[in-house]
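User: Could you check the structure of this?
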Amino acid sequence: MKLFVTGVAGQLGHDVMNELDKRGYEGVGSDLAPQYSGIQDGSAVTRMPYVSVDITDATAVEKVSEFLKMLNTELAFDSAIPFLDIYLRELKRYVHTKSCL
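Assistant: Sure, the predicted structure tokens are below.
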């Protein structure tokens, strides 16, 4: 499976791409810079395909979507999502704990 990951110039996106590689998935990274500008540590993310795109620009996203279809990319993943998931899970736990007191 090939996955599209935004925000790969940041630490979380960098780590997500490397984790995908460890688990046997192909990653296509993306960020605002014209080429990968994250940590140059020789890890998998530095060798994976990269697409420059501003995800707030609908026209640019549409163009990249067509490109990703050509690459048979199956899923898009925003590297900020794990934090959101953790936040919501912890918030639910907190609310549940307070309601049980």
